[in-house]
Predict the 3D structure of the following.
Amino acid sequence: MTQDTQNIQNIQWWQRGVIYQVYPRSFYDSDGDGLGDLNGLIAKLDYLRDLGIDAVWVSPFYPSPDADFGYDVTDHTAVDPRLGDLAAFDRLLAGLHDRGMKLIIDLVVTYVSDQHPWFIEARASRTSPKRDWFLWADAKPDGSPPNNWLSAFGGSGWQWDSATGQYYYHSFTAQQPDLNWRNPDLQAAMYEIARFWLERGVDGFRIDAAHWILKDPDLRDNPPNTAPPSDVARSMGEYDTQLHLYDKGHPNCHAVFAAYRRLIDSYSTPEHPRFAVGEIHVFDWPEWAKYYGENLTGLHMPFNFGLVGAAWRVPVIRGVVEGVEAAVPAGGWPNYVLGNHDEPRIAGRIGRVAARAAMLLLLTLRGTPTIYQGDEIGMENGIIPPDRILDPWGKFNPAMNRDVARTPFQWSAGPNAGFSPAGGQTWLPTHPNADSGVNVADQEPDPASMLNLTRALLRLRRGSVALYGGTYQTIPHTPEDVYAYLRSHGADRLLIVLNFAADSRPVGVRGSGDVLLSTDPERPSGTVDLAALRLHPHEGLIIKIGAEIGYNSLP
Ligand code: GLC
């Protein structure tokens, strides 16, 4: 276990701070077309500042035909006219910086839209100079695809191009041809895009689908997957029938991330450090940790999705945290996230009461937390009638529909949940629970609301060196359904206790402490005898403790 806390003064904003993910199509619609936009986000910057987050990661705002809602890009250095323009982007960046917040943007590097000029050129002929910027292969003699690789959304990953008589590869939709990262000109063009945004002033990147960037050059078939279903990784149906040995995560990808790292570091100064977090869906923690690179020359952080699909049970959650703690290399920094635009809502997954404890968990673990928009008000999975499904994955397999996490942000109980002016239709339906308290306007004045709980947690984390920079230690032998850990730095020692059960539980710790925060509004603050303390159903507690506490000796 490597918990570097000696240099707390030197930890950087992306380590100390909390990131908030904005999915711009669904945050706030400033012009009444039913789609969120950059001006809408700008209009809500005071909300984000008052929430108490440190950085905003904005999902793609680039021009896109919306085969995959912004992740199919036709121009990496422009803004989709429906969402704004570069001037709006500059206002967004300045608006965040003026309020002491940072901006992280999505860098979509693994594929482009099939409408992108590069691909249009590449598919024009086999001798096109851009042909090798993509992954082309001949059919097998019987006309079938070159190998058994699958699209993550279902079906073969190979799409036949009749005009040129070859297949091209797409890890996701057929409208997102994968780029060939073994081509040096493609590499140079991609690094140029990162420079464009660094020079414009962005503070960091979320590198999209980073895990998929390089594949086996020999195009070997994936072997079958015989492992039992995981209780951490989300099930992906047909895609899980294969062991994805060859279609992603090729070891050469680390050289690409090292190159990105050098590029980003070359734009960093002590006053303006920048960083990159990569989307890495790997749940074998030592394997996952390789993305920090040898001697930390890779990504500043690979996203850790361990809490996103994990069953809400103590052994599973504690196992993720301990696995991550053990795997993060010396000098590396962990991170956690409960959800994003690709995953069901945490409140939908575990219920709104337990989601309060989940927010406490997220904001008290060691490492950078990322909050997904709307989780701070307890938004639940959207209800999408079959004829309004937009997500390409959801169209293929309704059980995987990601629209549920992308419904408009709920600002009020007013028309269109305050997301979009009255009268128009929002791009995805708003959730009816916006009318019954799941909205900002109603929660703002209510001290017991999820919004005010999140704000209190963020305030506490910002003010506690133990939370933003201290060590993590599991408390052993806690009662069933109770997860407890210590976060400490010097005299700042906090005991975190979470009850995963729907009835009350003892804490399993002896000594005394001061309750600083509970997810249960009924819990009084003040000094408590830990041995006598009983956790309320689904309660999470932060307790300030002195030097000595005792643990149960029996499991
Ligand atoms: C990334 C994005 C996801 C998108 C996928 C394919 O995983 O997070 O939204 O669908 O890439 O484009």
About this structure: Residues 176 and 292 are 27 Å apart (CA to CA). The chain has a mean pLDDT of 96. The radius of gyration is 24 Å.
